[in-house]
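Can't paste images in this forum, so I'm doing it all in text. The chain is below; anyone willing to post the predicted structure tokens underneath?
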Amino acid sequence: MIEYSLADDLALALKLAGEADLISLERFQALDLRVTTKPDRTPVTDADQAVERSIRAGLAAARPHDAILGEEYGTEGDSRRQWIIDPIDGTANFLRGVPIWGTLIALAVDGRPEVGVVSAPALGKRWWAACGHGAWGQTADGHAHGHEPQRLRVSGVTALADVALSYNNIQGWDGAGRLDELVALQRAVWRARSVGDAWAYMLVAEGHLDAAGEWDLKPYDIAALIPIVEEAGGRFTSLEGEAGPWSGSALATNGHVHEEILEIVRARG
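Text version of the structure:
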């Protein structure tokens, strides 16, 4: 079996993300967009499915021995190298014409995400990282001319009272039985807002937010975010403090305030 470097894998993920952007942008705000409801009552569009098929086809050609986990088509293969795909993170935004959505592509090795790409073409933004290679972001001028990639770095805020926090949505915290903890967090920080989806975590990596966290997540919602936040100097765990994308929740911070937030969230749980 061919041994690939993380730089090779990152280059492939970026290529696949670029191809995915062409598909998703063409269907964004399309009048004939097809929307159905999955058994878990979440929406799925024809764009979600087309993007995941494109990424799977690219992986089958370039990494035929790797496993794949995708939101729309499940698990395929058995390997210590597993690609984890969310074809359109933020489908609810996508189908309503809100530009806060993106494609998430990760590579986990032995369960640990080591490559992550988040591409938000309607925002003209892309972020990426590989372990040991730093975290980077790029803004496109329209859809043609990209500015030079910029190294990402989390904020230096150290006091919880100065923290800008994104919590995604109240329903998720309420469903997890942690609404009281969310209220306590909002009282403890400077500013709490619901930014939503992957963008909130990228704002942490860029240093514009100091923390982002939410419940009721799947591995494909989380995996691509982890290398980017960590390579930007931040810390990423579940809201219970576990490492990896497998525990159903996420907390990304600049590292300085991570333990204080975990203490509040776990106070009753």
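The first helix runs from residue 6 to 27. Residues 218 and 257 are 24 Å apart (CA to CA).
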